[in-house]
Request: fold
Amino acid sequence: AESMDGKQVTADVFADYDLTMVNIWATWCSPCVDEMPELAKLYDQLPENVNMISICIDGADYPDTAKEILSTANAKFITLMGNDELDTRILDNIQGYPTTIFVDNAGQVIGAPKVGAPGSKEKIADEYMSLINDRLSQIK
Reply:
């Protein structure tokens, strides 16, 4: 898959971490855009064995908009554009946006996806952190 900054990203992106949080979003989805600054903050607080990436499903169609959203949010995590392989493996099963899945170092999804953004901005980081801790406990 290709990242928003033009780099090729493979499944190896998961290999170095016990768990990777994958946030799947769209430029037209206001709850997705609203939570992006909170995700950027959470990314900076993650434990060393946990990573976060995002997939912007319309990033290839609206790269400027997607980049602006990420830049405004100060998001430093890798963001992938949707592609056919991702669409088949992951995105075809998504019911709504944002959806967040948790993936182990072998690329297997751990636990259920979290559909929708957490209720209030103040709680976003806490809610995702508790999901991360829950999924970590399922791996070990």
About this structure: The two ends are 28 Å apart (CA to CA). The mean pLDDT is 90.
